[in-house]
């Protein structure tokens, strides 16, 4: 998640720096400059929302994969436990049979 937060921070920082530079070097009127800034900020806002949605989708995929892997581990452990129980029951049965014969 660190790379994603770094990426988002980079986008926000870039937007702010770009806006500041545009204000300093704008040869246009104040209204046109404000309109352009508003348009750019709107685009950055949309991009940021898209990135957030992408991160949410990736998170859901990762959580789903983790749940699947966790379920598989639990199922494997359960099967191994059942096998061990069966072996222990067979061993006890053979011990009881040996006691009865002896």
TrEMBL record:
According to the record, the segments passing through the membrane are 6-26
Which InterPro entries did the record assign? Desiccation-related_membrane (IPR052928), YtxH (IPR024623)
UniProt source species? Gracilimonas sediminicola
Coiled-coil intervals in this record? 41-101
Query: What single Pfam family name could you report for this chain, choosing any that match?
Result: YtxH
The answer to whether the entry has keyword Transmembrane helix is: yes
> Does the entry feature the keyword Membrane, yes or no?
yes
Signal peptide feature range: none
Q: What is the protein name given in its UniProt record?
A: YtxH domain-containing protein
Q: Which UniProt keywords apply?
A: Coiled coil, Membrane, Transmembrane, Transmembrane helix
